[in-house]
């Protein structure tokens, strides 16, 4: 699964002892111009994750996540461009307003 499958949650890890449910977005695409299509995929993927969490579907599949704080993390194979970082920072603020956390990093 990857960022190109926008209607699928790629990775989930639940650690009830730490009170965290981390949902990972697997991004194998390079951040090269023009980035519009890549950004649209990321936006659609984030929206899928938000629906999965906010609808409560996460708890149907992962009951241990019920008392956990949900975090969405973008795991990028390649370094993010400035445009991608700017997008992620805006997304982080919007997601935080929804009571969730968002982070991004290069995963090698």
Ends distance: 17 Å
Radius of gyration: 14 Å
Percent range for β-strand residues: 25-35%
Q: If strands are numbered along the chain, what order do they take across the biggest sheet?
A: 1-2-3-4
Task: Quickly count the domains.
Answer: 1
Number of DSSP helices?
Answer: 3
Quickly give the structural class: alpha/beta
Residue share in helix: 25-40%
Instruction: List the secondary-structure elements in sequence, H or E.
Output: EEHHEHE
If you average the pLDDT, what whole number results? 96
For the biggest sheet, the summary is:
4 strands, mixed
Strands, total number: 4
Low-confidence stretches: none
What spatial form do the alpha-carbon principal axes imply? Answer: elongated
Structure summary:
37% of the residues lie in helices and 25% in strands. It is an alpha/beta fold.
């Amino acid at each position: 699964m990857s960022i190109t499958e926008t209607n699928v949650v790629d990775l989930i890890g639940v650690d009830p002892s730490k009170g965290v449910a981390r949902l990972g977005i697997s991004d194998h695409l390079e951040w090269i111009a023009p980035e519009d299509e890549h950004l649209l995929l990321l936006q659609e993927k984030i929206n899928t994750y938000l629906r999965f969490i906010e609808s409560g579907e996460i708890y149907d599949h992962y009951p241990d996540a019920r008392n956990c704080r949900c975090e969405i993390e973008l795991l990028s194979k390649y370094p993010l461009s400035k445009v991608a970082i700017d997008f992620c920072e805006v997304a982080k603020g919007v997601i935080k307003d929804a009571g969730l956390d968002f982070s991004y990093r290069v995963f090698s």
